[in-house]
Amino acid sequence: MILEVCCGNLESVHAAVAGGAPRIELCSALELDGLTPSWEDLEAARKLYPALKIHVLIRSRAGDFCYSPAEVQEMAVQIEKALEQGADGIVLGALTPSGSLDRDAIQTWMDVISNWILAKGLEASGCHSSLDAYFFKELVPQPSVTFHRAFDRCRDPFGTLEALADMGIGRILTSGQTPTALEGAPLIRRLREKARGRIGLLPGGGVTPENARAILEQTGCTELHASASVTEKGRKVTSAALVSAILSS
């Protein structure tokens, strides 16, 4: 099992690592379901834990997932900034008011990632054209891309899965369009079967040491996403003990 721990602050990153998590989703404001993290937290986490896989949530504001052109561009800038600061992956998502995938927003963000890879390939190769850089892009670590739980609000999960796979998204974080991943396990399993390995499914939502194994067994997935958090002084903080307990469940 691969456990991705959602960390809303640097204190939580320390706890996730202490508990044995190999990967985190770094964000801020967990009480708002997560926003783009501070660059200071990303910089510190990257410097302190060079082997840790750090996926960065890109979400400029709380509320729905329907973004204006200005917000899409704002998040495009945030994506490039996160990659420049050493993010191993990007977590993103956008829908239209009708609950369909906002393809234009997603494509804008995927283009930013592709262009960053090509620019780094050019830099690594010492070449002078984007055509040359294309052949050297494999020298650059390929950022992972996850579509976040905006998926749980889309009106056509199977059609959205197909569109995301076609656009090169690596995985979908989902609770199966229910409050918890355990409740949504039947849908997650059907999505995984339909994906046929073209895109990963990452169950998340209400994951605990008590239900982690059941979620994996019922969905057939090999990864889980959890905050593994406790509330201290009015804020959510990751618990190293809970991370360890989920991993050993």
Secondary structure layout:
Blueprint: E1 2-7, H1 10-18, E2 23-26, H2 39-48, E3 53-57, H3 69-84, E4 89-92, H4 103-125, H5 130-136, E5 144-147, H6 157-166, E6 171-174, H7 185-195, E7 200-203, H8 212-219, E8 223-226, E9 229-232, E10 235-238, H9 240-247
Parallel strand pairs: 1-2, 1-8, 2-3, 3-4, 4-5, 5-6, 6-7
Antiparallel strand pairs: 9-10
3D structure, described in words:
With 249 residues, the protein is α/β, with parallel strands linked by helices. The protein has one domain: TIM Barrel, CATH 3.20.20.380. It has helices spanning 10-18, 39-48, 69-84, 103-125, 130-136, 157-166, 185-195, 212-219, 240-247, and strands at 2-7, 23-26, 53-57, 89-92, 144-147, 171-174, 200-203, 223-226, 229-232, 235-238. The longest helix is centred in the middle third of the chain and has 23 residues, at 103-125. The mean pLDDT is 94.
* Portion in strands: 15-25%
Order of helices and strands: EHEHEHEHHEHEHEHEEEH
Low-pLDDT sequence parts: none
- Order of strands across the main sheet: 7-6-5-4-3-2-1-8
**CATH-defined fold name:** TIM Barrel
| Rg on CA atoms, Å | 18 Å
Give the total of beta strands.
Answer: 10
Tell me the name of the CATH homologous superfamily. Answer: Copper homeostasis (CutC) domain
Largest sheet: 8 strands, parallel
How would you sum up the global shape?
A: globular
Structure described in brief:
The chain has helices at 10-18, 39-48, 69-84, 103-125, 130-136, 157-166, 185-195, 212-219, 240-247; strands spanning 2-7, 23-26, 53-57, 89-92, 144-147, 171-174, 200-203, 223-226, 229-232, 235-238. It is of the alpha/beta class.
